[in-house]
Each structure stands twice: as C-alpha cells, then as structure tokens.
Amino acid sequence: MSKLKVKVLKKEANELKIEVEGAGHGLCNLLQKKLLEDERVDLAGYDVPHPLASSPVIYVRMKGAAKPEDALIKAAEKAREMNTAFSKELKKALKA
Amino acid sequence: MKIEVLEKDETNLRLSIKEADVPLMNALRRIALAEVPSMAIDEVVMIENSSILQDEMIAHRLGLTPLKTDLDGYNLPEECKCQSEFGCSLCRVTLTMDADSTEGTRTVYSGELVSENPQIIPVSDKVPLLKLAKGQKLKLEAYARLGKGKNHAKWQPVSVCAYKYFPKIELLSEQCKDCAKCVDICPKKVLAMKENKVEVRDLLACNLCMDCVDACPQKPSAIKVEWEKDAFIMNIESSGALPPERIIQEATKILDKQLKEFEEQLKVGVK
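ok -> structure tokens follow
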C-alpha cells in the first residue's frame, strides 16, 4: 500500500522543507492552497522534481516565529473539514 | 457547502457543488481517476491459442475489458493478508474462457468469460475480443485483481471525471438588438430565440468558450459570460465497474485517509 511517508529535508525556526513519499499533485496542491490561506504563512509551495522518479517536496516559510509544522497540520485539518463537509452533503444530496 | 444531483443514472453522475474550492475539487478528481481501486484482469495463463492474435495481444484486450467490481469483498493484493505472489480468494478472481469455432469465422465476445464469482463479470458481454477462424481454438485462465488507475489505465473506475465552473450568463437587454448571432455561434446551444428575444435555454451546458461574446456586433458586447468562483459542476462517468456515486464517495474516503496519515506522519516525523 502506498502509505504516506514524510521525510524532513530542511528545518529551521520558521522554515520547513519535507518530502512526502506516496503523495501526488492532488494532495500537495490542496495543502499548498490551504497553507496560503493562513495569515502566518509567508511562502508555501510544492514541487515534483521528477514525475516518476521522485516524491513531491513541500516547502513552507512562516512570517515571524510561527512554527511551520503547526501551519501544515492546520492546513491538513482545514482540508479534512472541507472534505468531510463534501461527503456529508453528497450523502444528503444522493438520498434526496 | 451545498451539493445537488443534476443527473444520475447507472453510469453517469452530474453534481452541482456550491461553496467549494478548486483544490478540493481537483484533489477529488485526481483521486477518482488514479486512486479509487477497481477490478481488472492482470494475468492470463494461455492453455491453447491457435488464433492469429499473439497471447500478449489477447491478454492486453482482456485487461482493458471493464469488470464489475466488488470493493467490499476483495482486498488490494498489496494489502491482503495472504501476501502471496499468486493471490488468494480474497484478492483474486479467476475467469476462464474456452472458445472455438466449428464452422466459419466468428467473433469471440467478453460474454464468453466464465467467472468463479458471478458478481465479478464483464460490465458488458458485447466487447469483441478476437476473431476465430474455422478450427481455431482459444483456451485460457485469467486472474483479475483490484488495482489503481495510477498503475495502469485498466484499473481506472471512471472514463470521465471532470469539473467546470458554474456559468453565469447575463443578457444586457438594452444593448441587445436580437440579431441572434450569439444564438447561432454557441456550440452547446445554450442560447435560444424566444418570441424574437434572446434567452438562456440551458445554462448548465455552457462551457465558457465566450464565442457568443465575440460574436455580438454590439460594442461593448450585449452578452456577458462569467462564472462563479466557488461553484462547480462535476461530471463523473463510470466505466461500469462501480456506480459513479460510489466512486466519488470512495474518493472522499481516500482523501480523508491521506490527510489523516499526513498529519500523523508530520507529528511523528517533524519535531
């Protein structure tokens, strides 16, 4: 099973670069956009260095002293909430 | 978020989704295409093949034949407890075929595949697989497994999974001279003439091509085409392997699992 695996590439006080094994554009793009909605985030981006031979790399830089890992968790939570709302609404719509 | 079912039948599902955003729609679309598992023939043992098609060719055609899938009854081979190269009854279905032609040339169709599980059968029994001339024979055993679209297109449960912005068309009646140029040019027949007036006939069909805006002789154009930034129309067309509503529900489940896993990994890995 393609389990996700997070590998830290670079870690500073307000910067984080991680490689996410098993993730694709779908997940990374979602996380990036949700990160950018966070006011504490200065810069967020992702890159897939090679479509077949490598895993995507997510980079986050924060304004001031905020922790980038907290912002990532918040972004993932936000995405999950939205996804849960989607599946709930879908169930409702399919029943009607 | 507000979701409405616009159209629904055995293979098609059309949803109107409001108060959503692009990244979520895109993630769900990508997952439906590449990560929702479905059943397909993966390995074929040729017992006898005297047709003119090579074994590989037939195996490829068998692989691309959509099979009805039972997601709850079967495991993905990599997640199955057996961990066997050959699979077990929980992660593999055997289909057999014994076809020959006694008189003249005939076409062999997917309906001639005999499955050990009557639930896992070809979606259509009218998929032509090959032709046999008089006296030629084909006998084989095929093994179907669950798989994901990212590994091979034969495991894609959808033939189409796409979304577009919800269109918004405004007719500026003061400027409009009702010349009907916009009506004629629209490739989707969104606009129509009614009592010599232009009106929107089928808003949801609009694909935002803007041809009508360019075709309008008025300057500025008497027709305005825009889209809602947070509303979408999603179209899911299943290959028949799974019902379309099941595919999108599975996609939300997989996304939730991925995000959960990501959070867990982050908590463990980054300290």
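Chain A is about 40% helix and 30% strand.
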